Amino acid sequence: MVQLSVENLREILNQERARSGRSRVGEKALVVLEDMLNRPGPAAVDSISELAAKNGVDPSTLTRLGKRLGFAGFAELQDVFRRQVAQTQPFYSSRVQERVAEPVGIDDPQELIRIHAQSECQRVLKLANSLDADAVTRAVDAIVSARHVHVLAMRATYAFSHFFGTYLGTLRENVTILGVPGQGLTLELASLTPDDLLVAVSFRPYTRAVVAAVEVMKENGVPILALTDADSPIQVGPEHGTSVVIDEPFYFDSATSQFFAIQTILLAAARRLGPSAVAMVKRRERLDKALNVEIT
């Protein structure tokens, strides 16, 4: 993979603009590169189709741009902007500012629905092609074999731990969601043993308490299943467990890829557990009915 920075790309743009004769990158591609350099936030998170549409070109133009710059394709080029934004820009306010500054046409509800659906579908398809099937298998192995599964995520990613823990708890016994109100994390983590599994979920910007919890549990010999993005501080090697890398941007308006990966792991776990999972769900259903929990 080519190692270039945003500043390197800016130098290339200036050199290409100064060339006499035809640019080796192509005029349309240069327009796209200039737009990406001027708007690094959207360049880091928008889908290839979104960036192409905003610049009035075909998505293949962005693919060619990446290749002509020495990358394998557009994804590696976009990674340059992701790293730059992660290092230099405020995470939440920058994203909201980008969304507020979208073209006027996106104020139309139907157009907003269409554009957002298209963008999220593209991200899910990209993840489906890049998700490590072996890592998913190792994750299921750990989930099924653990004496007790403890799920930890905090702040914006707490929704993932609640979803993961709630549904896994319908498939097997001994599943606990950590970090719930009224409970101290220290007390909760103190009960974990090497026979258990800590499922840790965190995406950029990472929550310090989750990172610290993973480090402490590694020292205590507790296996870790990390659901996170690439180059994350909670990623673990085989000696400490396994990591499922979900390398798609996570924002309040873009979390479909993360939920898709979690759903995939839960589906694979249900299939592995087989009849015992079905029996567990039926037992929970009987309890719900006895307690008159649901309205149908």
TrEMBL record:
It comes from Ottowia thiooxydans. PANTHER family: GLUCOKINASE (PTHR30514), RPIR-FAMILY TRANSCRIPTIONAL REGULATOR (PTHR30514:SF18). The keyword Transcription applies. Keywords: DNA-binding, Glycolysis, Transcription, Transcription regulation. This is DNA-binding MurR/RpiR family transcriptional regulator. Residues 139-275 form the SIS domain. Residues 12-88 form the HTH rpiR-type domain. Pfam families: SIS (PF01380). GO terms for molecular function: DNA binding. The keyword Transcription applies.
